[in-house]
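Researcher: Next entry in the queue.
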Amino acid sequence: MTTIDSSKKICTLINVFTVESEKHLDLFKLLMQATETTMCKIPGYISANLHISDDKKTITNYAQWASLADFLSMLKNEEAQVHMKEAASIAKEIKPVTYSEVWTHLK
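Model: Structure for this entry, 107 residues:
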């Protein structure tokens, strides 16, 4: 389960995919399948959450990895690369950013 905890030093990936609205379900299904069949089996994987924007033009993947090194290792994984190339063929633009520092506020 995804947990945001400032006392834990994990790597968070926020990956924003821009897509033609008519292709959003294709990309969403690909990202779901890639997560369930490949990403979750790679060492260091913690969680993933996919968000579809209301206008159907953006899908955001909020994923957590045990460390930046684990995330970078995933990028070299051959099975993961197949999924990433397929996602790149559907998306118009992909903007991945990793974060290791967090601050939260709850009411």
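Model: Residues 24-37 form the longest helix (14 residues).
Researcher: Noted, moving on.
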